[in-house]
Amino acid sequence: MTQLAFLIAPMHGHVNPTLPVARELVARGHRVIYWLTAQFRDAVAATGAEFREIRTPPPDPRLPADTDPLVTLALIPARLAAAAVEVLPGVLDGVRELGPDTVVVYDQLCVWGRLVAEVAGVPAAMLCTTYASNEHFSFLTGPHGRTVPRIPAAMEVFDGDLGRLAAPILFDVDEVSVHDPGGDRPRVTFTDAGGTARTLVCDVVAGCDGFHGVSRTAFPPGALRTYRREYPFAWLGILARTPPSHHELIYAYSDRGFALHSMRSPEITRLYLQVPAGERIEDWPDDRIWDELAVRLAVDGFDLRSGPVLEKGLTSVRSVVTEPMRYGRLLLAGDAAHIVPPTGAKGMNLAVADALDLSRALVPFLSGRSTELLDGYSDRRLHRVWRAEHFSWWMTSMLHRFPDDDPFERRLQLAQLRYTVSSVAAATSLAENSTWACRTTSPEAGPRQGTTRRDSGAEPGRTVRSPRAPSGREASTATPGRARRTRRRSGSPEAARLRRERR
Ligand SMILES: Cc1cc2nc3c(=O)[nH]c(=O)nc-3n(C[C@H](O)[C@H](O)[C@H](O)COP(=O)(O)OP(=O)(O)OC[C@H]3O[C@@H](n4cnc5c(N)ncnc54)[C@H](O)[C@@H]3O)c2cc1C
């Protein structure tokens, strides 16, 4: 006999499909225990399974009665997150009491199902009671085919509910430093917003404080090794109130340097120019920026839309990796541990992937079950970080003008560009690198099924990344379909030859 803890989101569409499964398991001599709200008591009893009651918070009164049903649908995860706060402790105690010979069976929307299994240290199986979801399916645009409207009231509820799940966030703190990271109880000292000196005694410290944060400085002397490359140029970026000039990102390679056109929203465009390192922002009035962008992005049939500049800034272009990403109970994640040049659009993706890996490693560590995942954190992440570093360095080297380039180097760059935009193998490699840092399988294991597909809008035979694959901020810039748009200044014979070759 197996004991099965059924943790299902308390909604008819999720509970009903599980009832025949429970009935069959009971008939085969297994013990099935459901944790559900009272309305399901009779339905569960009819299957022969045991019933334990959970109480979830009432619907939020702030949502107007005439709320679009799609908004209500979109808020379900937030509602369940709020419910998780209430029900998790009781369900966890109950599952622990059942003992180690228990299997948690949870449905895909039951936020606390997986958590309970992980913390209790018992095996878990997920039931897909409704649609399957993966990287090709977005909940917000999913089964109904239209985007859920973002009404302010709905987002307020969403933020509020998720906020309740998190630990308190302290703003305006000062003089932060990390102490004794090698000990069992590392400490973080700081001055709070009211000027009071405070100490936080921790199980672990996650150093997610960016490139200029203090976490790295808490490593003892000699414990960290830093690998670094500074590039002889910077990116001048603007945010402009103007609709994007094209529906895709454009990476432009020109005699005058690199330029990038990307979009933030239907009304806001983000644009970048390669400029020499040490350039001063005062030397770049808006007109000069638009003129330079127009020259570098010029190609037949393309009109650059200009508009008011909302933001303007310079970003250094550098590659940095610090190793290892862990010292004792201090763990680095994101820009605190590594920086990539923005050309590969990988920085935020790497940071999120670090955080995801770390969160998974902390569950068994903090519940006292195993240190194995946490022990492997630094090596696992550095393996991927270096892959992303190489990809970002490679994209940067291919697309920028270097002050000491000679004609030979320039022809090598063009040869690489032509190869990248004309070879299916090269384009596939670029797509794989573009998505790899956040994936759970490695390139060595081969492309995961479904990450590439034939796209009807692409050139015949060209494989491009699925447009539904998840991407971070501007993270999809480096897809082959987009790389094809990489261009030189339109008027030159070189550009004409490239265009002919593409055709
Ligand atoms: C121009 C540009 C374009 C980019 N484009 C992309 C892109 O298209 N795709 C992509 O994936 N990435 C991109 N990135 C990179 C991305 O922005 C970063 O890699 C990402 O933000 C790193 O996240 P993080 O949380 O590690 O660090 P950060 O975003 O730097 O966050 C660290 C936070 O910690 C806070 N902090 C620091 N010290 C303390 C302290 N003592 N106490 C309290 N708080 C503290 C900081 O204020 C900051 O809010 C781009 C970067 C730039 C500059």
Concise account of the structure shown:
The protein has 503 residues and is α/β, with parallel strands linked by helices. It is built from 15 helices and 19 strands.
Could you characterize the architecture of this molecule?
This protein is α/β, with parallel strands linked by helices. The chain folds into three domains: 3-165, Rossmann fold; 174-220 and 324-371, FAD/NAD(P)-binding domain; 225-323, D-Amino Acid Oxidase, subunit A, domain 2 (D-Amino Acid Oxidase, Chain A, domain 2), CATH 3.30.9.10. Helices cover 34% and strands 21% of the residues. The chain is built from 15 helices and 19 strands. The chain has helices at residues 12-15, 19-27, 41-45, 69-74, 76-98, 111-120, 152-165, 286-297, 347-366, 372-375, 377-399, 407-422, 424-436, 480-483, 493-502, and strands spanning 3-7, 31-36, 50-53, 102-107, 124-127, 174-179, 187-191, 197-201, 205-207, 225-241, 250-252, 259-263, 268-276, 309-323, 326-327, 330-332, 338-339, 452-454, 463-465. A six-stranded antiparallel beta sheet has the order 11-12-13-10-14-17. Strand 12 (259-263) and strand 13 form a beta hairpin. Helix 9 (347-366) packs antiparallel against helix 11 and helix 12 crosses helix 13. The longest helix has 23 residues, at 76-98. Residues 137-155, 440-495 and 497-503 have low confidence and may be disordered. The protein binds flavin-adenine dinucleotide (FAD).
Mean pLDDT: 81
Distance between the termini: 66 Å
Overall radius of gyration? 27 Å
Largest sheet: 6 strands, antiparallel
Percent strand equals 15-25%
Return the CATH architecture of the largest domain. 3-Layer(aba) Sandwich
What is the CATH third-level topology name of the largest domain? Rossmann fold
Structural category: alpha/beta
Would you report the number of β strands? 19
Bound molecules: flavin-adenine dinucleotide
From the spread of the alpha carbons, the general shape counts as globular
Q: Could you give me the name of the CATH homologous superfamily of the largest domain?
A: Glycogen Phosphorylase B
Report helical residue fraction: 25-40%
What is the domain total for the residues? Answer: 3
Briefly, what CATH class of the largest domain? Alpha Beta
Number of helical regions: 15
Q: Major sheet: order of its strands?
A: 11-12-13-10-14-17
